[in-house]
Amino acid sequence: MTESNPGFGSATRFAFFGDPSVPVLYAAQTEEAAVCETILHDVPPGPGRVMYDSIADKICAPLAPTRKLRLVSLMGDGPRKLQTEAKHVTGTSSSQYSRTVRWAEAAHEAGFEGLVWMSNRRNSDRAYVFFGDRVIPGDLTALGDRGRIFAAGPDFDWLGNYLAGLGIDIMLP
Fold first, then answer.
1. DSSP conformation letters of 100-143
2. Tens digit of each residue's pLDDT (9 = 90 or more) over 116-166
3. 12 belongs to a structural domain
4. Residues 6+ apart with CB under 8 A from 124
5. Is residue 10 part of a domain?
6. Among 25, 32, 89, 119, which is disulfide-ready with 127 (CB 3.0 to 4.6 Å)?
7. What is the spatial distance between Cα 154 and Cα 146, in angstroms, rounded to a whole number?
8. Contact at 8 Å (CB) between 33 and 118?
9. Residue 30, class by beta-carbon neighbours within 10 Å (0-12 exposed, 13-18 middle, 19+ buried)?
10. Could you list the residue range(s) of the whole structural domain that residue 143 is in?
11. pLDDT at 7 over 90
12. CA 170, CA 173: separation in Å to the nearest integer?
């Protein structure tokens, strides 16, 4: 649960860069933000649906750092200090990822261990990306047995209720 993606899949806002690719781990401040940043990432606002197959392999587990991490802040005064605006970095569409990934690369080159920003999809919670060559196993720990497995049972019910409140249906196979 605390393993970084070594470079599999399509480009994301802050991955992938470097040769070899710098692994990344995305995280969020709350379970709801994690759902919004992953399962609902490409679902437009308003009534919609997600396919069961797209959630069946998803898990959500609370993490805590075991040491202080040096993160670039892309919220509050952070964007102004970097002479930009959040809308140009964390509020862009996926068509801009080739540009936004350069912010992560610059932060990595400057010695930071990741980035933190206000989730664009749930703007009351923070989102994070950690660089897997700097935040190594043991720097983050999964907290107890409080994780969720969305495939079935009470965690599926929790997800279904949360999505229903947003007007999103889960389409079963």
1. HHHHHHHHHHTT--EEEEE-SSSTTSEEEEEETTTS-TTSEEE-
2. 999 999 999 999 999 999 999 899 998 877 789 999 899 999 999 999 999
3. no
4. 33
5. no
6. 119
7. 12
8. no
9. middle
10. 24-46+62-147
11. no
12. 10
d(CA 131, CA 47): 35
Cα 156 to Cα 159: distance, rounded to the nearest angstrom:
5
Give the amino acid at 93. Answer: S
Helix, strand, coil tally for the chain in percent (to 5): 25, 25, 50
Residue 132 lies in a domain: yes
**Phi and psi dihedrals of 145, rounded to 5?**
-110, 35
Q: Tell me the pTM.
A: 0.91
Query: What is the rounded distance in angstroms from the CA atom of residue 149 to the CA atom of residue 128?
Result: 21
**Whats the size of the chain, residue-wise?**
173
| Distance from the Cα of residue 95 to its chain's centroid | 17
Q: 31: which 2 tokens?
A: 């379970």
In one-letter notation, the amino acid at residue 100 is: T
Number of folded domains that form the chain: 1
Residue 107 lies in a domain: yes
Query: The tokens of 17 are what?
Result: 């860069």
Task: Note whether 70 and 44 are within 8 A (CB).
Answer: no
Which amino acid belongs to residue 157? D
Q: Which two tokens stand for residue 105?
A: 């690369």
Other residues' Cβ atoms within 10 Å of the Cβ of residue 57: 9
H or E segment to which residue 163 belongs: helix 153-165
